[in-house]
């Protein structure tokens, strides 16, 4: 019990939780979650699986229910099954930059993992400031609430401010909101049903 309490205290007092979260992510071999993204172009829902050194599988729920994408970092290509997963129909082989496999906001499948997100937050922090807003909850989970905002004129892409809720025990993001330089919300992302280092079947990333 005491080690767990000490761990929670150390996380709550960490002066740079973004760097700490990245260090934690680098120790993760794989993860799975349900991702819900809400922006001006509507809602996207998908089941997401990641494995080092960058394998990604997306099983779409909304808006393109049944579509499956698999990214292979060794081949640097995406396989797309628009109407059903591998084994049912022949898939398309596409570049990660192809608009058919980019999100409604232009996000690439090969830049969709939590590590990429945290590195973007860290880049903005290097040209701005981090404010820790204390403990909060997302659903039934205790989280560490913080804001990273660039100095005037500083952005990462179109993002000038990130608001994050990091899990108290794992520092894995559970919710992220991005804002543009005018203070308008760009996107809200919820990460649910998170499983870190799950046992994955051998064919989960197979075409």
Topology:
Layout: H1 2-12, H2 17-26, E1 30-39, E2 42-51, E3 55-62, E4 68-72, E5 77-81, E6 92-94, H3 114-126, E7 128-138, E8 141-150, E9 161-167, E10 173-179, E11 185-196
Antiparallel strand pairs: 1-2, 1-11, 2-3, 3-4, 4-5, 5-6, 7-8, 8-9, 9-10, 10-11
Organism: Litchfieldella anticariensis (strain DSM 16096 / CECT 5854 / CIP 108499 / LMG 22089 / FP35)
Protein name: DUF1571 domain-containing protein
Folded structure, characterized:
By secondary structure, the chain is of the alpha+beta class. It has one domain: outer membrane lipoprotein receptor (LolB), chain A, CATH 2.50.20.10. The protein is 16% helix and 43% strand. It contains three helices and eleven strands. An eleven-stranded antiparallel beta sheet has the order 6-5-4-3-2-1-11-10-9-8-7, covered by helices on one side. α2 runs antiparallel to α3. The longest helix is centred in the middle third of the chain and has 13 residues. It is globular and about 50 Å long. The N terminus is likely disordered. It comes from Litchfieldella anticariensis (strain DSM 16096 / CECT 5854 / CIP 108499 / LMG 22089 / FP35) (Halomonas anticariensis). This is DUF1571 domain-containing protein.
């Amino acid at each position: 019990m005491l080690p767990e309490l000490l761990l929670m205290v150390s996380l709550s007092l960490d002066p740079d939780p973004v760097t700490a979260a990245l260090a934690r992510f680098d120790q993760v071999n794989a993860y799975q979650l349900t991702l819900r993204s809400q922006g001006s172009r509507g809602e996207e829902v998908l089941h997401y699986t990641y494995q080092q050194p960058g394998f990604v599988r997306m099983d779409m729920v909304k808006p393109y229910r049944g579509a499956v994408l698999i990214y292979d970092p060794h081949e640097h290509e995406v396989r797309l099954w628009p109407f059903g997963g591998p084994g049912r129909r022949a898939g398309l082989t596409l570049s990660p930059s192809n608009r058919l496999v980019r999100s409604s906001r232009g996000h690439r499948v090969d830049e969709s993992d939590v590590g990429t997100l945290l590195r973007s937050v860290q880049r903005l922090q290097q040209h701005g400031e981090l404010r820790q807003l204390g403990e909060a909850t997302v659903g039934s989970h205790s989280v560490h609430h913080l804001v990273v905002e660039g100095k005037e004129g500083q952005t990462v892409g179109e993002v000038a401010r990130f608001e994050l809720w990091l899990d108290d025990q794992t520092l894995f993001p559970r919710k992220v909101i991005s804002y543009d330089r005018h203070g308008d919300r760009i996107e809200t992302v919820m990460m649910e049903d998170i499983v870190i280092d799950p046992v994955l079947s051998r064919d989960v990333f197979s075409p």
